[in-house]
Specification:
Shape: globular
CATH architecture of the largest domain: Alpha-Beta Horseshoe
Number of domains: 2
Helix content: 25-40%
Number of helices: 19
Strand content: 15-25%
Structural class: alpha/beta
Radius of gyration: 22 Å
Number of strands: 15
Distance between the termini: 49 Å
Length: about 500
């Protein structure tokens, strides 16, 4: 076999007791994209998803020339946090297969390629962007040091132990997307009924969470939020001072191509669909055409997708709802306009936020509202503004994150410039982990930010107004599920 792709997992470490029943188990989209890209070039490939099967003791049976860890995820901190599980698995692979080349790809290693190799002797090669063309070149070679020095888009350790950073590679352009990245290899993944969506996406009803699949219909984002590192995977420049904001790019598959993948998922009995695009509701000629095709087929999907306060329009909503888009995730981030301006999130006024929420909910679509505390010049008052806004909006689900200086993000460079401590190990980046360390602000220490985050979550999910709304919309089972979740108290090292 040419390559075995491993999708690592660190769920138990990152989500504590929530991992047992409440966290999602998602298909690793990038593992599927890369697998299909090399398969279509005539190369042999398998996927081992450790989220579903953590045991890799039989890995030698694959007889793979290259083992590639795809360390990514569908939220901004997922790649760095998931390194916690990936490096442990890589150490195990190295013990089992001491001569086999091990490579890593994903946003974290894109951001810190040489640092990754310096820290982890078990890793031989790091791919420095999304990796499609680089992986094909690697597999077309004999993987010798003489071959590696000619391949763009990698960092590697030569025969003398010296770390070499080759010139940057290219990402797949829009014009070649269907040809060079021809969809997700769902057939190489475990059965889709082994995956489960987030509880809220299934209206807080556990038995409806599977089968589940995530899909990309587009890649990247045109915006440049300070806290986000998602676009670092588009890196085409090795300049260490350039961040995710330097590589803003938006590419999308033709809707007629994407619908074929949705056809396959429908045939597999999948109802729960996450459109993991960073910004799905952006270009009408992309998402509206796809909605038309879904409506035409009569699929009964329950779709969750992302948009922005300033991109969703009233004219879109009826079509989105008819296509099965029952949840839209919105990044509100802060309740304070000056904080939003500071992080380049946008300058929409609070009144617009309220109007947009009402507009979406009046169309029969639920809102998953995302908030971040501990941004820039956040203080106790501005964080309370965020909580107050969240309480007022009373979304069907709310995520509250503590800002974290993720490698590849502008915030990471700011933290380094200001001399702020950054996490020393990967699990400290996981916002629900025991040892999570948020970024400090100009006014607050990390532990103060985290304390407020955990307090805010309890206030929101134990709020009688929220619980009454959930009961009226989704019933008693949903309420029971939320109450069970509320009974789980996260342990935090820095708060003890």
């Amino acid at each position: 076999m040419d390559v075995l792709i491993i999708a690592p997992s660190a769920s138990r470490k990152l989500y504590q007791k929530l991992s047992q029943n409440f966290s999602a188990k998602e298909t690793n989209i990038w593992a599927g994209l890369l697998a299909n890209a090399v398969r279509c070039k005539g190369m042999s490939v398998s996927i081992h998803d450790m989220e579903i099967d953590p045991d890799i003791t039989d890995i030698a049976n694959y007889e793979a020339r290259l083992i590639l860890f795809v360390v990514t995820g569908q939220n901004p901190n997922a790649s760095t946090a998931s390194m916690a599980g990936a490096v442990i698995a890589a150490e195990e692979v190295r013990e089992l297969l001491p001569e086999t080349k091990i490579a890593f790809v994903g946003p974290h290693v894109n951001a810190l390629p040489t640092t990754t190799l310096e820290k982890h002797k078990e890793i031989d090669i790091v791919l420095t962007n999304e990796g499609v063309y680089t992986l094909i070149e690697l597999l077309s070679s004999n993987l010798t040091n003489n071959d590696l020095k000619k391949i763009k888009g990698i960092a590697y350790r030569d025969s003398f132990g010296q770390i070499i950073l080759n010139p940057a590679g290219k990402v797949v352009p829009q014009s070649r997307l269907e040809k060079d990245m021809p969809g997700i290899a769902y057939d190489l993944m475990p059965s889709l009924d082994k995956y489960r969506t987030s509880s809220w996406h299934a209206n807080y009803i556990d038995e409806d969470r599977s089968p589940f699949a995530s899909i990309y219909t587009s890649l990247g984002c045109i915006f440049k939020c300070e806290f986000c590192m998602i676009n670092i995977i588009n890196r085409e420049d090795n300049d260490p001072h350039k961040t995710s904001s330097s590589f803003s790019k938006f590419r999308y598959w033709d809707p007629y191509f994407t619908i074929k993948q949705l056809d396959y998922l429908a045939e597999q009995g999948v109802k729960q669909i996450k459109i993991a695009d960073e910004m799905w509701v952006l270009k009408p000629k992309h998402f509206e055409v796809l909605c038309d095709l879904i409506i035409e087929r009569g699929y009964e999907f329950n779709i969750w997708a992302y948009t922005r306060i300033d991109t969703v329009k009233p004219r879109y909503l009826e079509k989105l709802k008819n296509a099965g888009v029952n949840w839209l995730a919105l990044g509100v981030e802060s309740g304070n306009q000056e904080i939003r301006r500071e992080i380049t999130k946008g300058r929409f006024e609070d009144i617009n936020i309220r109007d947009v929420f009402k507009m979406i909910q009046n169309a029969g679509i639920n809102v998953c509202a995302n908030y971040i505390v501990g941004l820039g010049h956040d203080n106790w008052d501005t964080m309370q503004e965020t909580l107050n806004l969240a309480l007022e909006l009373n979304a069907e689900n709310s995520n509250i994150y503590s800002a974290t200086s993720l490698p590849g993000s502008p915030l990471y460079l700011k933290a380094k410039k200001e001399g702020w401590d950054t996490p020393e190990n990967y699990s400290q980046y996981g916002f629900l982990s025991y040892d999570h360390i948020p970024s400090k602000t100009y006014n607050l220490e990390s532990k103060e930010v985290l304390d407020f985050r955990d307090y805010s979550f309890r206030v929101l999910f134990e709020n009688p107004r929220f619980l009454n709304m959930i009961q009226n919309k989704f019933g008693d089972k949903a309420i029971d599920n939320i109450k069970r979740m509320n009974n789980i108290r996260l342990k935090r090292k820095i708060l003890q």
